[in-house]
């Protein structure tokens, strides 16, 4: 909130570069761990600043698609990592794998210089003329004037405090946002993506190269599903798309569980995981950060996102850290039952409590609340 959305995004690239360089020269476990912590800090800033920036600078008619571009490029990054890992798998040159990531880090740093600051953040800092100029650049004149009035009417120019996020009026949006972030992780999507080669090996694939090739297939489906979700999220709505995606995940877990019990061929597991990744990508993968970015008022958005990110990252770390242990103790079939149960609970809560926010300005959403 103090430095602005754009400025925060600009700090990410130097942080990433420092972490990548440390990874490249690491020769002890401590330096490797320290480098990963630095990169994690950069990733944390990214996860807060970019959805917040995109939600505040985009017109309501395309805001869903704009925020979804964040998820799209995450999926492209995952796919790229699978391809790069496959290329270097025969040699085992992990340093080269990390070194290549310098390219997108530099690209982000250079291109952010050409993008404007968030107009809502500028309004909150009393820089009204700068904010109006940016709105006029990104909206039609009448839309820019209307939105400027809505923003000024809704903003309290005083600096928001952390206690404001926990106020009575924001407690329900906060709890619902945390729930969405945590249960996105409890679908175990990151466990399947990070340990895809190991899962395919357990499912019957015979070589490391074939494992990685199957992982590339998952990464490609992740991208395709995200693109589809981007195309429809502003048309059919966040809530509907999220329900469709989670419903598909529940059915896929049922299919995977039955397939495991019947000892179906390994290709059946591949098909099931492809469907699972597709359902997640076009549903929860696209919608989660859009919803979370929209539910918080402008003055507390970054603080609210930070809290949600903390619980999301904590639950994601727990799932990925325990994933292989869960698979070992419960076997794949038991893991499918466990994470499928979490997905059923996710669907029930979303169907009952999540409002629809498509085609509404951030100020409208704030006024209407979750009623």
Please tell me about this protein's structure.
It contains 18 helices and no strands. The longest helix has 53 residues. The model has no long low-confidence stretch (mean pLDDT 83). Helix 1 packs antiparallel against helix 5, helix 2 packs antiparallel against helix 3 and helix 7 runs antiparallel to helix 8. The two termini are 28 Å apart. 81% of the residues lie in helices and 0% in strands. By secondary structure, the protein is mostly helical.
Q: Strand count, sense and closure of the main sheet?
A: none
SSE run: HHHHHHHHHHHHHHHHHH
How many distinct helices?
18
Helix share, percent: over 70%
Oligomer: single chain
The assigned structural class equals mainly alpha
Strand content: under 5%
Number of strands: 0
Mean pLDDT score, rounded? 83
Measured distance between first and last alpha carbons = 28 Å
The radius of gyration computed from the alpha-carbon positions, rounded to a whole number of angstroms, is 21 Å
Broad shape: globular
| pLDDT < 50 stretches | none
Protein traits:
mainly alpha; 18 helices; globular
Spell out the blueprint of helices and strands.
Layout: H1 5-25, H2 29-57, H3 63-88, H4 94-99, H5 102-111, H6 119-124, H7 128-138, H8 141-154, H9 162-165, H10 168-186, H11 189-194, H12 196-203, H13 208-236, H14 238-261, H15 266-282, H16 284-295, H17 301-353, H18 362-368
Helix pairs in contact: 1-2, 1-5, 2-3, 2-17, 3-13, 3-16, 7-8, 10-16, 10-17, 12-13, 13-14, 13-15, 14-15, 14-16, 14-17, 15-16
